[in-house]
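Hi Y.,

Following your request, here is the sequence exactly as I used it, all 327 residues.
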Amino acid sequence: MEYTHLGRSALRVSRLCLGTLNLGVRTDLEESYRILDMAVDRGVNFLDTANIYGWQRHKGFTEEVLGGWFAKGSGRREKVVLGTKVGNEMSDAANESGLSMRHIIASCDASLRRLGTEWIDLFQMHRVDWHAPWEEVWQAMDLLVQQGKVRYVGTSNFPGWHIAEAQEHANRRHSLGIVSEQSVYNLVTRHIESEVIPACRRYGVGVVTWSPLHGGLLGGLLRKMEEGTAGKSAQGRAQDFLRTDRQAIVAFESLCKRLAVEPAELGLAWVLSRPGVTASVVGPRSAEQLEGAFRALQLEPTEEMFHALDEIFPPAAKGVLGTEAWA
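Below is the corresponding structure, written out as C-alpha cells. Let me know if you'd prefer a different format.
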C-alpha cells in the first residue's frame, strides 16, 4: 500500500480510502466486517463515513456499524484514520442541519457516541452552508480541536472559491484550517480540474475523490448489462449518462479491451494518477470488489492511455485553469 500526506498536514493516509456508504445497508453486517478487516489487513488506514449514511434504516446507522467493528478490539480504532461529516439534515428540527456552531458541536458529540470513539481524525463539512459565517464555523471547529474531539478539518463538495475563502478566514485566526476537500471526480465528471484542484494545490489542501467509477458507469457497465450482471450500476447517474453519451462508454470499453485491462481498474488508476489527488474513496459491496481496487493500485497509466482517455473524455475547460479558459 502506498501512503501519502493528507494535504499539507503531517498525517499519512493510504491512497485508497474505504468508503462505508454500502456497509450494513447493501452489504450485511458479516460481510461489512469482512470488508473492513480485509482493507486494514491489506494496508488501508483511511476510512470515510458521514453522519447521514445508513439513512435507508436511520441516519447514523453506518457510524453505528463502524462503532460495532471498533468494539471488536485488536487495535482496530488506533489503526485507522477516521473521517466523518457534518452539515446535512439529520431531522426536521430547525437546528439539526447546516454549519451553525450549535449543530457542528452537537453533531460531533453524536458521531462520537455512535462510533464509540473519543476522537474523529477528519471532521468534514459535507456541504456549503451559505448562512453560516466563517467566524462561527471556525470558532466551533477550533473548540472541538482544542477539546481533543477532532484532529483535522476538511470539506466536501465545496467550490474552489469557497475553499479559498474558508482558508483565508482560518489563516487570520492562526488556525490550521482545511487539510482536505472531498469531491466527485472521474473520467466523465472532470469539472473540479478547472478551479477546485488548483485552489486545493495552492492552499495545500489534499483532494480526496469520491465516485471514481461514476456509480459503476466506468466499471464495464455495457458488458455487464449484456451479461445480466449490472445490478445497481445499471441505475441512477450511470444510466443518465448512457442516455446522453453512450458512445463514449462504448469507446472506453473498447479501449480497455484493446489494452487488456479491466475498465474499473483503469478508471480508478486514472483518478489516482491525477495531479493533486491524495486518495480516492472506494465503496465496495463485497470483498471481491475491494480486491479489484487493490489491483488498480498496481496499474500505472501510460502517456498513450492518458491521450486516448482525453480523446474520449475531454478535460474540463479544455485543460485550462479556471476563468482563463474564457479569457
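The longest strand covers residues 150-156.

Thanks again,
Q.
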